[in-house]
Give the backbone structure.
Amino acid sequence: MKRICTTINIQASPEDVWEVLADIEEYPAWNPFITRINGKLRVGEPLKVEYETNSSFKVKLKTLVLNTEVNKEIRWMGHFWMNGLLNCEHLFRIEELEDGNVHFINCEKFTGPLVPLFMYLLEEDMNNGFKTMNEHLKRMAEKRR
């Protein structure tokens, strides 16, 4: 198992961050890492997610929504090629801080026998992609304030 997690503090309310994060149809307009999501953010629904790393490596993933909790969490599970070879569980978590702002967590857990090869090839790009997405989310949510 391998986990990539990034965090950022956002000077916006959980509602403002949620509005940007949950509007998956707008991802191509602001999100340089997760460039497209097709489907509905409802538990049990399939999503097609496209990632693009900083080195322009594109990954298409079929996922299943595991959880959506308004103003708090989006979580999905997917796999590359065949289930079990490289499974990925993605988490977006919005944690409200005492001052009403947000601590945002963007995390992916990888399991399966292809994890070492995948991490060798893409770990740095994935980590950088998460950080870049976080910065763009911060800008978009803080504009709503």
